[in-house]
């Protein structure tokens, strides 16, 4: 087989694999990507409080700006 044909087949195979992977992640998202009904992620990181420099749970920050 010629080089350009093999490169074209390789490119098509990579494109199909990437598309299938993205479709799978969209259809069945991993647990870490799931959020609650309020839009909060299940695994919330700590965020830096600008005045004290200590960590604040992201949920508290969301509640503060949502008014809850």
Automatic annotation (TrEMBL):
Region listing for Disordered, in residue ranges: 38-59
Full protein name: Uncharacterized protein
Keywords: Membrane, Transmembrane, Transmembrane helix
TM region(s), chain numbering: 6-27
